[in-house]
Structure formats: C-alpha cells, structure tokens
Specification:
This protein is mainly beta and 202 residues long. The chain has one domain. It has 2 helices and 13 strands, in the order αββββαβββββββββ. The chain has helices at 10-15, 102-107, and strands spanning 49-53, 64-75, 78-88, 93-100, 113-118, 128-130, 140-144, 153-154, 162-169, 174-177, 180-182, 186-189, 192-195. Strands 1, 2, 3, 4, 5, 6, 7, 8, 9, 10, 11, 12 and 13 form a 13-stranded mixed beta sheet that branches. The longest helix is centred in the first third of the chain and has 6 residues, at 10-15. The chain is globular. Keywords: Signal. Residues 1-26 form the signal peptide.
Length: 202
C-alpha cells in the first residue's frame, strides 16, 4: 500500500538534504549466501503498515549490526534525526532504526514520522512503512514486521538481496534513505533523499 502524499512538497524537496556523516557506527555484517528462511518468519503479504517499537528488538545484542551510512533528515526547521539499517546476523532479519535529534524532539514533540524497510528488487520497490510515531513517544523508533513480535524483514526475500532503511516526516512524501546494502557483502549505493516518490531508490 502506497502512502499518499498529502502535503505540498515543492518547498520540502529543496529542504531535504542528506549527508553521510552521522552517529552511525558502520559495521561489517556477517553475510549468508544461501540461508533458508528461518523458522518463525512470516512472509509479508502485500504492502501493509507494520508495527513500530521504541526499543531495540529482543535479540542478542551482539547479533545487531549497523549497516552502511544513515540517511540524515534535514528540514526547514533543522536536523530532525537519522535512519539507519540494522542487520540481525543471528536470524537474517533487516530492521530500520530511527533516532530523533535531541533539539528537534524538544522543539517539535508532535511531528509525525514513519520508518520503512524496502528493496528496489522486492515487490515493485514499494517499501513497508510503520505506523506513525512522534518524538513524545521516545528518542528511538524501530521498524518491526509483526505487531508484538521482534521480526524484521528477512534479507533473502529481495530478488537481489539488497535493502534500504528510510524515514518520512509529516506524510510529506519526502524520504531520507540510508545506504542500499547488498547482503552478498557490499554496498550498491549511498544515502539518498528525495520527494514525490516513496519507492525504494536503486
């Protein structure tokens, strides 16, 4: 399901700028060439809204690895925060992790955010978006595939095994994307930002 753009984005397009600098600690992921779908993973059906969590998934801490560079979200009101891709090397899941800027959280506690995980080679490059979260709900927001569960999206579901994490503020249609990472062991493209197209960029 595509999220409809409900705000004018001409001004926002000029305001959305991304950089590769940030607080992400890039880490080399442990890659699996031909891992079968792990037991307990539910294959996503269509393009649904997924759940959002304010704490990290309940997996072993040494299993979660930051992937590539984050997408930094700049707005006319200042730096909002960043989204990064996180890989669970123990079960092969991909997550998105958003962290609000402290300043932005304090000044705009009611701003709306959706976090996404998607691939340009999975289901017509339409990402899976979370429900809305606001800064008043906490500094961190995590993409979780199933309500009440800790699963992300299994990396092997994408045709080319490549994924991005993204974030969109205020249903603007302007999305910040982190690195496009291929789970065969390399990055295909760096962070990207744009408006009027919520599909996952290649």
């Amino acid at each position: 399901m595509r999220i409809k753009t409900i705000a004018a984005v001409a001004t926002a397009a000029a305001a959305l700028t991304l950089g590769t600098a940030g607080t992400s600690n890039a880490a080399q992921a442990i890659h699996s060439q031909a891992t079968p779908v792990a037991t307990g993973h539910a294959t996503p059906a269509g393009f649904h809204l997924t759940s959002i969590g304010n704490t990290a998934p309940k997996v072993a801490a040494d299993c979660l690895l930051n992937i590539g560079s984050p997408g930094n979200y700049q707005t006319p009101d200042g730096y909002a925060g960043q989204v990064e891709q996180v890989y669970d090397s123990c079960n092969g899941d991909v997550y998105a992790h958003w962290q609000w800027s402290n300043d932005f959280m304090q000044r705009f506690p009611g701003r709306k955010l959706r976090v996404a995980v998607g691939s340009p080679t999975y289901e017509y490059d339409l990402p899976f978006w979370t429900d809305i979260v606001t800064p008043s709900q906490g500094k961190d927001a995590w993409f979780i595939n199933e309500p009440g569960e800790n699963y992300g999206l299994y990396h092997g579901w994408a045709g080319n095994d490549d994924w991005r994490a993204g974030a969109m503020l205020d249903e603007s249609g302007c999305v910040a994307w982190g690195t496009l990472h291929n789970y065969n062991g390399y990055d295909e493209a760096g962070p990207y930002g744009g408006c009027n197209d919520e599909n996952v960029p290649g």
